Amino acid sequence: MPGTTTAIARQAADVPPPGPHGADRHNRWVVLVVLCASLLLVAIDATVLHVAVPAVSEDLRPGAVELLWIVDAYPLVCASLLILFGTLGDKVGTRRVLLFGYTLFAAASAVAAFAHSPGVLIGARALLGVGGAMIMPATLSILRQVFPDRRERALAVGVWSAVAAVGAAIGPLVGGLLLEHFWWGSVFLINLPLMAAGLPLGRWLLPESVSGSDGPWDVLGAVMAAAGLFGVIFGVKQAGGGEPLSPLCWLPLAAGALLIALFVRRQRGRPHPLIDFGTLTRAAFGTSVGCIVLTVLALVGLALIAAQYLQLVLGLSPLETGLRLLPLSLAAIAAGLLGSRLLALLGPRRMVALGFLATAVAVLCLTGVGQHDRPGLLVGGFVLLGFGLETTLFGCYESMLSEAPAEHSGGAAAVGETAYQLGAGIGIALLGSVMNAAYGPGVRSAAARVGLSASDGADASHSLGEAYEVAGHVGGGAGEALRHAARSSFVTGLHVTLLVSAALLVAGALAALRLPRRMDGTAGAREHPEERDDRTRPGSGRPAEAGGGRPLSRGVTQS
Q1: 404-427 burial string, b = 16+ CB within 10 Å, else e?
Q2: 232: which residues sit within 8 A by CB, 6+ positions away?
Q3: Which of 29, 43, 199, 209 has its CA at a distance of 20 to 30 angstroms from the CA of residue 378?
Q4: Quick one: which H or E segment has residue 288?
């Protein structure tokens, strides 16, 4: 490809077009607001249904398997399709994919709100996952386009990542508030007005951009990636449900891992791959992705256990639980807004490492909680936890996005979002398994001491909620003794889980040492200046691709 065409393609990727569909320097912050509003809805929908499950069960009477799919259909489908739609956006245009996502998300929300059967609700949740998979990587990819200056982009990524973290955290709080006044379908109807406003605003404000490469979109590869990710994440979720050795866990896990391995092999052999694994294997990009997995692993696993602790041990209502977790969200917002300054001051390496260490300190402080309420300790721990986790996520996303070429920003964003979803699944599976291993033996032993049957002891050892049900059924002194022993075992398991989380966070801090020391340590900065200038100068005659037609993974726009 001649140099002039290369320059035009790169300018199309890095510089938003002028006019009503572009994002010039006067409205790029309005673009950020539009992107964050849509991302907030997608993030809230991942957790908003959790508190509505009892109401859904009472109204629709789903079976146990149907109820599981009502909850899991959305995150499973969304996580599986992120790479498919992220790379499709690079090929056909991120704005086009995003607007389709808005439309589908709104339509699926309306169907879910008025679903009259479990099957309809499961199908609507799956369609919400498809819409979410279109929206999430597109928002990050467009953000990469409209903020070519890295320092401004750092602030934008901070706001974006804070919205993503806060959306998932406040989902149960939003659901609790709605359910106090409306029926369960209201948790879906809140999507309609914002998506309806987002469609015309997005069409008018958001820039369109497509990849500068000529090759066709690899449909078979995209399907392989989607099927492989579905199998892996489904298997991880089954393991988190307490069935790590069942065929329903390891068969999809093995099949998914095989498909992903075949996908990687296929992409390495193609002249125009969906994902440039040359970029993915770079220290900065690969380390950022790995650190995202570790960060979300700790965030989701700890949030789930903390919610159980607040409700079942301290006896708080769902709304009170959401309010207790609010300091974590506020601290995350503060960290996102301060992220760009911290990044300029500390650099990616120290920022991510210190974020991991701050989170580890917060986790260790929370080991001081017990069977009695200690609000000061909880608030302090949650504030430090939220600030540390968001600082880490900010540094990882910013480094990952700046390392990736602008023309492949959709694929890079999809990889980061997939890492987020995979970390969430692993967090629930791993930390949930640690929690169960520490909780179960003490409950079974206590049940045997008070003379309960082996089946009652086994049921009580599954979870603290089931232990309370068994204790209520047994009644009397035996039931009260079981209740006390189960509460004590849960607190012990919580402490063990926190210690394991702290160890993983310290490992993340060590892994972060592979990130660049300074903010400008990107691919473009490591490239020889004369080569970079030659390749982007109109009429230079330099080829756009090298090494058998593979997309170049350099030339990141510098501030």
Answers
A1: bbbbbbbbbbbbbbbbbbbbbbbb
A2: 252, 253, 256, 257, 260, 422
A3: 43
A4: helix 283-308
